[in-house]
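Q: For a teaching session next week I want to show students how multiple molecules come together into a single three-dimensional assembly. I've collected the sequence lines for a complex. Could you give me the predicted C-alpha cells for the whole thing so I can convert them for display?
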Amino acid sequence: MKIDRFQAFSDGIFAILITILVLEFHIPTYREGHLLTALLAQWPLFLSYAFSYFYVGTLWLFHHDYFSMLKRIDRNVNILNLLMLFSITLLDYPMSLVADALTTRNRADMQTAFIVYDLVALFISATFYFMYLYLHRHQELKNPAVTADFYAVIKFDPVRSVSIYGLAIVGTFWSIWLGAILLAGGIIFHFLAYLRMSKQLALAKGSAA
Amino acid sequence: MKIDRFQAFSDGIFAILITILVLEFHIPTYREGHLLTALLAQWPLFLSYAFSYFYVGTLWLFHHDYFSMLKRIDRNVNILNLLMLFSITLLDYPMSLVADALTTRNRADMQTAFIVYDLVALFISATFYFMYLYLHRHQELKNPAVTADFYAVIKFDPVRSVSIYGLAIVGTFWSIWLGAILLAGGIIFHFLAYLRMSKQLALAKGSAA
Amino acid sequence: MKIDRFQAFSDGIFAILITILVLEFHIPTYREGHLLTALLAQWPLFLSYAFSYFYVGTLWLFHHDYFSMLKRIDRNVNILNLLMLFSITLLDYPMSLVADALTTRNRADMQTAFIVYDLVALFISATFYFMYLYLHRHQELKNPAVTADFYAVIKFDPVRSVSIYGLAIVGTFWSIWLGAILLAGGIIFHFLAYLRMSKQLALAKGSAA
Amino acid sequence: MKIDRFQAFSDGIFAILITILVLEFHIPTYREGHLLTALLAQWPLFLSYAFSYFYVGTLWLFHHDYFSMLKRIDRNVNILNLLMLFSITLLDYPMSLVADALTTRNRADMQTAFIVYDLVALFISATFYFMYLYLHRHQELKNPAVTADFYAVIKFDPVRSVSIYGLAIVGTFWSIWLGAILLAGGIIFHFLAYLRMSKQLALAKGSAA
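A: Of course. Below is the structure for the complete assembly, covering every listed component.
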C-alpha cells in the first residue's frame, strides 16, 4: 500500500476537525447594547478553543513528521490510524464541555468536564503508544535510515503523556486548578516532545544522506 | 480518466463525514452540579457514534483497497460512486435517530430508528453490489493481475449484507434487541469481509508480481 | 500555475458542500411513540436533499471533466473559479428553505423558497457561462486536442440553463408545481448536458490520440 | 520537508472554512406567508457572508501564489502556518457577530462586532508579517529565481493591512459607517495587493526562465 492516500485521508480529517472546532462559537443571548459584556464572558470558550486548536495542530505536526519516516503502510497501520483519528475527533466535545463548565463555575461540573477532556487526551496518547509499538515491531515498513536510536528517544513519550493525564485526573479531584494546569501541561508537553522528535528525525535522515 | 482525482474526492467525502459525526454531540440541558449524570445518560449517543464511526471507517478501508485494483475509471464508475457516497453520507441522520430513541426508550420509536438505520445500511450495500457488478462487466478498467478468482471470493458479500439488514428489519418488529444485534452484526460482518477481501487482493497482486 | 492544486482545492469544496448538506437533517420534535409519523412528514427535506445532492454531484462531474481539458490555469481562472464555487456553496440555504416551505405548504412561502433556489441556480449557470467565455478566449490554456468543435457543442448550455431557471421563476408566480417541475427540469438538464459534454470530450481526446 | 503535504493541508483548511461559512445561514422565524420579508431582512447576513467569502478566497489566492515560490519548508514554517490558519479560521465568528449586530442596528453592538472583526483581520495580517519576515531570513527555503526585488515589493503589505485595520478600530468609535468602510477597504486592499504580488511573482519566475 502506498502512503500517499493514507496521509491525504489523515490530513483531511485533521484539517476538518481543526476547522470545525470554530463551529462551537455561538452568539450568546445578550441584552441589546451589551454584546461586548456577553463576548467578554465567553473567554472560557476562546481559551478552550485556542488550547484545543493548538493541541490538534500539534498532533497533526506529529502525524506529519512521524509517518514521513515510513516507506509504506500495511492494513494494520491503516486500522490503528483510524482508531487514532477516532480518539482525536472526540476532542471537539470535551472542548465545549470545558468551556461550558468554566462559564457556570460549578465545581462539580468543572471536575467532570476536565476529567472527560483528560480521558480523551489519555485515549489519544494510548493510541500513539500502540502505533509506536506496532511500527517498532515492523521495521520493514520504515525508512532504513531511521534506526533504533530514534525509537529509543521517542518510545516513552506516549507513556509520559498517559501518566500526565492520569495525574491530571487524580489532581482534578483535589483541586480544579491543579487539574487544569496538569491538562495544559500535557498539551504543552506534546509540543515539546514534537520539537524533540522532529529534530531527532532530521538527524536520522541527515546522517543517512 | 485518471483515478487520482476520483480517489481524492471520495477520500474527502469519507474524511468529512467521519469527522462531522462528532457534531451530533450537544451539551445536554442539566441541573447545575449534575453534568456527570447528564453525560452518563448520553451513552446511547456515544455508542451510536462509535459504531457509526467504525462503520464509515470500514467502508473507507473497503473503498481504499477495492479501487486500488483499478487501472482507470470511466464516467459510469464516477456516477455509481456518487450514488454510493450519497448512501453513505445519509448515515449521519439515523445515527442521531438511534441515539435519540435509545435515550427515550420508547419501543415504537426505537423500532423506527433502527429500521431507518437498517434501510440506509441496506441501500449502501446495494450500491456496492451495483459497483461490483459493473466492474465485473468492465474488466478493461481493472488491473489485469486481479482475476476472476478475486471476484468469485467477494461477489456475494453485498448480497450477504443486504440479507443481514433485511433480516434486521424483520427482526426489529419481533424484538428491539434482536434487531440491534443483527444491525451490529451487519457492521461487524463488513469489517470481516474487508479483512478477507484485503488479504485476497494482496494475494492476487503478489502472485502477479 | 499548475492545475493540480486548483483541482484539489475545488474538489475539497465540492466534497465538503455535498457532505454538509446532510447537517440540515434535524430530529423533528415529536410525541413519544410517534417518531415514524414525524419522519414521514420530513419527506420534503429528503426530496430537497436528494435533488441538491444530485445537483452538486452533477456540478462536480462537470467541473471534473471540463477542467481536465486544460493544460494550465492562470490567475483569472482561479478567481472565476472562486466565484463559481461561491455560487455553488450558496445552494445549502435554499435547499433548507424549499424543504421548510414544502412542510408548511404556504403558497407564498413556497413561491419565495423556489425563487431563491432558482436565483442561486441561475447564478451558478451564469458563472459557468463566464468561465466558458473566458476559456474560449484563452485557447493557450487548453489542451490543443480540444478544438473549437467541442466549444461549439457546449457553448449554449449555460444560456439554456439560465433560460430554464428564468422560466422557472416566471412559472412559479403562475403555479407552484409548474415552477417546481421547471426547477427539477433544470437540474436534470445539467445531468444530460454533462453526459453529452463528457462524450464529446472523450471523442476530442480520442481523435487527437 | 516536502511542500506538497503542507499545501494540501492548508488548502483543506481553506476549503473547509470557506464552505462552512454557509452553515451560519439559518431559517429565520417568520409568520406564515411572510418568508420573503424575513429573508429580505437577512441582507446583513448575506453581505457579511459575501465579504467574508471574498476575504477568505483572497487569503487562499495569496497563500497559493506566495508559497509556490518555496522550494521546501521547515518546521518553523509549518508552525507559523498553523498560527496563520488559526487566525483565519477565527473569521467565522465575527462574520456572524457583524451580521447579527447589523440586524439589531444597536450602535454599541455594531461597534463591538466590527471591532472584533477588525481585531481578527489585524491578527491575520500580523501572522502574514511574521511569515514574510521569517522567509526573508531563510532564503535557502526559496526558489532562487525569486529575489530581493520581489520581497521589496511585498514586504510592507502586512504593515499596511495592520494599519488599515488599526485605523478601522479607531474609526469605528467615531462613526460606525466609517469603520465599516475601512474594514471593507482593508479586505479590498488585500485583493489588490494579491493582484500586484501575483504579477510580480510571474515576472520573477519569467525572468529566471
